[in-house]
Write a structure and sequence with these properties.
Layout lengths: L16 H6 L20 H7 L4 H6 L1 H15 L4 E2 L6 H5 L5 E3 L3 E3 L7 H4 L7 H19 L8 E6 L1 H10 L7 H9 L1 H24 L4 E6 L7 H17 L6 E5 L6 H4 L6 E4 L5 H8 L10 E6 L8 H15 L4 E5 L9 H13 L1
Parallel strand pairs: 1-4, 4-5, 5-6, 6-7, 7-8, 8-9
Antiparallel strand pairs: 2-3
Bound molecules: coproporphyrinogen III.
The site of coproporphyrinogen III has 20 residues, from strand 3.
């Protein structure tokens, strides 16, 4: 009888389009994945979520791994992103965190000044966030069983974006507390951002050690700052984090930040991920001439997630236009921000398929 030994990872054909595009190599077609690809727009996710709250999903490695793999199986995306949240390290630092239905994340005791800052601890990262690392190991184990394993992306928030939630106490319209602190006591704010960076470095390194093959940093709220303030407040801790990552591709995501592109060109990241407000060829025209010598940055993005709520033939047309706009250099097809929970799954599939048809 023929024995059924599992093929070794190297013998098996691995789908490494995503990693090659991150490194700026020429690839057969752009890889595609979607921010927030594991989530409520999928029936499989809603079914699990009906039984467990969000933090339980994050903290149970088998469940987190299962949810991570749902979009890989259902949509055939070219990369998996670990199911977790950027806010988990804040909880590990001692900030109570709740996810309330309808309200999103809530920090009942926000950190709004230097005195509050003293309440934050530097945690034992392995002890408090080890569940994320266990989930990454479990995802890699399960990915290896697929006929064509895809790479696993780990992630975290930038210190400024983490502060946007921790200082406000949750989702905020105007970020008045964050702005008040950053204008009133910028040195104190920098101290907070530094403390967040210290923990983020260990957290992201832990993800890579557990099997994450690329790291994406989310700066969802970086665009609140003008260029001079982004450089002074947000950038130092971002550069420190990016420079302390082990040797994996680094993706920097930012929203609402066309005014920051000349600064972003300087970041030590292989990939820049942008929102939908500017076409990718226009982004490249700004950043390419400004980059230090060496390979040019790959771009990731940037279909408006709202476009996935429109008719399928329009989604296909816009996706082809996106591929055209991205074709001047290495491109990873993605959305410009997370997919909306009300997106029909067949619309998400039309986006992925159109990219994969080439
Ligand atoms: O599939 C994936 O992309 C991986 C998982 C992932 C989640 N959050 C799971 C999640 C990722 C990469 C994130 C990143 C994240 N989390 C960001 C940066 C990206 C962005 O959206 O700007 C931010 C700002 C957060 C913080 C956060 N988590 C908010 C503001 C919310 C509430 C809004 C919402 O979409 O519900 C969350 C909750 C959250 N994080 C959900 C998921 C799947 C929804 C939880 C649920 O099922 O109710």
């Amino acid at each position: 009888m023929v024995s059924c030994r599992p093929m070794s990872q190297s013998a098996k054909s691995m789908n490494d389009l995503f990693l090659r595009a991150c490194r700026g190599e020429t690839v057969e077609r752009p890889p595609v994945w979607m921010m927030r690809q594991a989530g409520r727009y999928m029936a499989e996710y809603r079914a699990l979520r009906a039984q467990h709250d969000f933090l339980t999903l994050c903290k149970t490695p088998e469940l987190a791994a299962e949810v991570t793999l749902q979009p890989v199986r259902a949509l055939g995306v070219d990369a998996a992103i670990l199911f977790a949240d950027i806010l988990l390290p804040l909880e590990a630092m001692g900030a109570e965190l709740r996810f309330q239905k309808g309200d999103g994340p809530v920090f009942p005791n926000p950190v709004r000044n230097r005195d509050d800052l003293e309440r934050l601890q530097h945690p034992d990262v392995e002890g408090t966030l080890g569940y994320v690392f266990d989930a990454a190991r479990e995802v890699r184990r399960r990915l290896a069983e697929l006929p064509r394993p895809v790479p696993l992306i780990g992630f975290g928030g930038t210190p400024w974006t983490l502060a946007a939630y921790l200082v406000e106490g949750g989702i905020s319209k105007h970020h008045a507390h964050l702005l008040a602190w950053s204008y009133g006591d910028p040195e104190g704010m920098l101290r907070l951002l530094d403390r967040l960076a210290d923990v983020s470095i260990e957290y992201l390194r832990g993800q890579v050690e557990a099997g994450a093959q690329a790291i994406q940093l989310f700066d969802t709220w970086g665009g609140l700052l003008d260029a001079e303030r982004w450089r002074r407040l947000a950038m130092p801790s971002v550069v420190r984090i990016l420079e302390s990552l082990p040797d994996v591709p680094r993706i920097f995501y930012i929203r609402d930040a066309a005014h920051l592109l000349p600064i972003l060109a300087e970041l030590p990241a292989e990939v820049l991920s942008v929102d939908w407000r500017m076409p990718l060829d226009a982004v490249r025209a700004i950043i390419d001439p400004l980059q230090p010598t060496g390979p040019k940055k790959a771009l990731q993005g940037n279909l408006d997630p709202g476009a996935l709520l429109g008719p399928i033939d329009e989604i296909r047309r816009r996706t082809r236009a996106l591929l055209q706009a991205g074709s001047g250099g290495p491109h990873i097809a993605n959305l410009g921000h997370g997919i909306f929970p009300m997106t029909p799954v067949e619309n998400a599939r039309a986006f992925v398929e159109t990219v994969q048809e080439g």
